[in-house]
Amino acid sequence: MSPPINFRVIPDSICGLESLEELNLSSNALESLPESIGLLQKLKVLNVSGNKLSALPDSISKCSSLVELDASFN
After folding, report:
1. Interatomic CA distance for residues 70 and 16, integer angstroms
2. Higher-confidence residue: 8 or 45?
3. Homologous superfamily, domain 18-70
4. Cα–Cα distance between 24 and 46 in angstroms, integer?
5. Which UniProt keywords apply (predicted)?
6. Which of 10, 18, 25, 43 has the smallest number of Cβ neighbours within 10 A?
7. Computed over its alpha carbons, how large is the radius of gyration of the chain?
8. Would you state the pLDDT for residue 2?
9. Which pLDDT does position 31 carry in this prediction?
10. What pTM was computed for the model?
11. Residue 7: pLDDT band with limits 50, 70, 90
12. Bridge partners of 46?
């Protein structure tokens, strides 16, 4: 069994995946999300629970297809 990977930073390049509909970034060590997250117009589900986020970027409001957001335990 591999040890867990604890991401601290999400690269802006992930926000170039225009057809992405679900993104699970739970249980990492993220302190922020890139402003470019707003480019994910087809994103329906975003799970960022269990990180170290103190806020979400304003650009999250541009994710017009987002119907489920879990930011618990941050």
Report:
1. 22
2. 45
3. Ribonuclease Inhibitor (3.80.10.10)
4. 6
5. Leucine-rich repeat, Repeat
6. 18
7. 12
8. 56
9. 95
10. 0.90
11. confident
12. 23, 69
